[in-house]
Amino acid sequence: MALTADSTAAPPGAASPGTDRETRPVPGDPAVLKVVPARHHARWAAAVAVIVLVSQFAHGLATNPVWEWGVFRAYFLSETIVQAVWVTLRLTAYATVLGFLLGTVLAFMRLSSSPVLQTVAWSYIWIFRSIPMIVQLVFWFNLSALYEELGVGIPFGPVLWSVDSNSLIGTVGAAVIGLTLHQAAYAAEIVRGGVIAVGHGQLEAAAALGIPRLRQIRRIVLPQAMRAILPTAGNEIIGLLKGTSVVYVMSIGELFYQVQVIYGRNGRVIPLLLVATAWYVVLTTLLSVAQYYVERHFARGADRTPPPTPLQRARRFVRDLREAAVRRDQPAVPLKPLGESR
Q: Quick one: angle between helices 269-298 and 79-111, nearest 10?
C-alpha cells in the first residue's frame, strides 16, 4: 500500500519535526542575551568624594569656635543690621528702575537710523562701561568741587535759577546717580540684545496693519524680547545688589558699611562678615525666586503649558501621598471564583 503525504504527519499531541529547530536559541539573538546594568564607578566615586567634602565643611561650620554663632544670632536681626538691609534694598531698587529706564532709551537710540543718536548712545555706553563703579561714585560724591552750583537757564546765556550742589545732591543722591548711570550702560546692551532677537518680520507685519511705531515697540517687540532680556537682566540686578557694597566709600549706612562699623568696635570680624554674607544670600535667593516667576509669566506666549512650579510639584507630591494612603487603608475586595454568578 502506498503512503500518502499525510501519513508522515506527526500524531496529535506530538511535536512537529521543526519545533526543536525553531525554539533552539540562536547565538547572538538579543532576546536571549543577558542584560547587565551599567556600572558607573567613576560617578559613584565622585559622589562619595563630594559628600565627604560637604560633610567636612558642615562639620567645620558647626564645631569651629571662630565662627562664634552666638554673636551671629545676636546681630543677624538686630535693628542696625535690618536698617542697613533696607538701605541696600532701596539703593538696588532705585538703581534698577532708573538704570533700566535709561538703558532702554539708550538701546533704542543705538537701534535708530539717526547717526547722531547712535553715536551719543554708543559713546555713553563706551565711557560708563570703561570707568569702574567705585571711581564713578567718588566722582559724583565730589561733584561740588567741580560745580559749586547747578542751575537752569538759556544755553550759553544767563542762568535763571541755581542751587547749591551739596544741597541738591546729597550723599544718597550721589550714590543713586552713580549706580544708575553705571547700570544704564549695561542695561542698554541687554535690552538691545533682546530687541535684536525678535524677528524683523514682526515689525513689518505690524507696520502693514497700520499699528503706530510706539505701540509696536510696547505691545509687540518688548513682550517677545523679554524672554531674552530677563535671564541676563536678572543676573545684572543680582550683581547690582552685591555691588551696592561699594558705596561704603561714601559712608552710607548700607549692609557692608554697618558690618564694618560694628566689627571695628567689638573686633568680631568673622561672625559679622558671616552676618553680611547670610543677608546677601537671603536677598539673592528672593531675587532669584522673583526672576523665576517673571520669566514664567513672559514665557506663556512661547509655551502654552509651562512646567509646574516647585510649589505645584510639592502640592502634587503631597496629594499623591494622601491618595496612596487612602487606597492603602481601603479594604481589599475579594475576587469571586470563576463561574460564580454575579
A: 40
Distances (CA, A) of 117 to 94, 114, 134: 26, 5, 28
- Percent of the chain clearing pLDDT 90 (strictly above): 36
d(CA 297, CA 149): 47
Please give the backbone phi and psi of residue 17, each rounded to the nearest 5 degrees, phi first: -60, -30
Of 209, 176, 193, the C-alpha closest to 92 is 176
pLDDT score for 182: 93
Q: Which residues pair with 159 in a beta bridge?
A: 153
pLDDT (0 to 100) of residue 124:
94
Q: How far apart are CA 97 and CA 252, in angstroms?
A: 20
- pTM equals 0.75
Tell me the Cα Rg of the chain: 35
Element (H, E) at 161: strand 159-164
Q: For 258, what's the count of Cα atoms within 13 Å in the CB-facing half-sphere?
A: 21
Extract the residue ranges of the chain whose pLDDT is less than 70. 1-32, 301-307, 331-342
Residue type, 159: V
Residue 304 has a pLDDT of 57
Residue 81's alpha-carbon distances to 84, 118, 144, 272, 277, in angstroms, are 5, 44, 31, 10, 12
Short-list 150, 175, 153, CA closest to 164: 150
